[in-house]
Design brief:
This protein is α+β, with helices and mostly antiparallel strands. 19% of the residues lie in helices and 32% in strands. The strands form four sheets. Strands 1, 4, 9, 10, 13, 14, 15 and 16 form an eight-stranded mixed beta sheet that branches. Strands 6-7-11-12 form a four-stranded mixed beta sheet, with no helix packed on it. The N terminus is likely disordered.
Length: 244
């Protein structure tokens, strides 16, 4: 039995069950995990060169029914506009994207004039909007698929080319060692299909759905150690689906 539900509400059943009636009135039931799901979500294109994280969260929040724009999300983020200290064509000291949006949103990652933000400020913005957010590193593709089954869109950090990339390091002014790439990107996962072996994302870089092979998605998300933020609706106790 293959089920392909359109998931639009959190808390939908994770099992698809069927009952077969046999001669004599006997019944036999079977239940299977859904092999695919697709959340209803808007297609948003980022409005500034480096605000992909804000746009990706806006997709997730709007999918959960919040009237929130990417501009609103970006305004919630603390900013560190100080320039990078570059030695040998690489940054050695810059800001901490786990605390602030680093650099100029109209800058360029390749020139170290602008960068982005990691999961803690994005999760905080989601909760400020009224959502419940689960943000951390260490997410697996299986974890993310479980969140989609539960109706929770997930913002995931990847490399812009959707492939694994080794990361460089700079030292934040707070002393933390920061992993980075010059193609850091964030997308919103809204679906998956285990039969075709694909994950569906809203790629805010172009404002379109983008199906990615599960293997490629897994490799791309490993670039930032499985960094992601799952969003659910307000008012409901949030139990991360991948931990149930």
């Amino acid at each position: 039995l293959v089920a392909a539900p359109l998931v639009a509400e959190a808390g939908l059943p994770r099992l698809t069950c069927s009952v077969v009636r046999a001669p004599g009135g006997l019944t036999h039931g079977e239940c299977h995990m859904a092999t695919s799901a697709l959340l209803a979500a808007p297609l948003i294109k980022q409005s500034m060169p480096l605000d992909c994280e804000s746009a990706a969260l806006a997709v997730a929040l709007q999918a959960r029914g919040f009237d929130i724009s990417q501009g609103w999300v970006f305004d919630q983020l603390p900013k560190d506009p100080r320039v990078a200290i570059v030695t040998g064509a690489h940054p050695v000291i810059w800001g901490d994207p786990s605390v602030d949006f680093v650099g100029n949103v109209y800058g360029a990652e390749s020139r170290y004039t602008g960068y982005g933000v990691y999961y803690p400020p994005i999760a905080a913005a989601a909760e400020r909007a009224g959502a419940t957010a689960d943000g951390h590193t260490g997410w697996t593709t299986t974890d993310i698929e479980a969140e989609i089954r539960a109706g929770h869109p997930v913002v995931v950090w990847v490399n812009f080319n959707f492939a694994y990339s080794a990361t460089g390091r700079w030292n934040a002014r707070d002393g933390r060692s920061i992993p980075y790439t010059t193609e850091e990107h964030a997308v919103t996962v809204v679906g998956f299909n285990t039969v075709t072996g694909t994950v569906m994302v809203v790629d805010v870089g172009v404002g379109l759905h983008r199906p990615i092979s599960t293997a490629a998605f897994t490799a791309a998300s490993a670039t930032f150690g499985g960094m992601a933020v799952a969003c659910s609706e307000p008012g409901a106790p949030y139990t991360p689906a991948h931990r149930q």
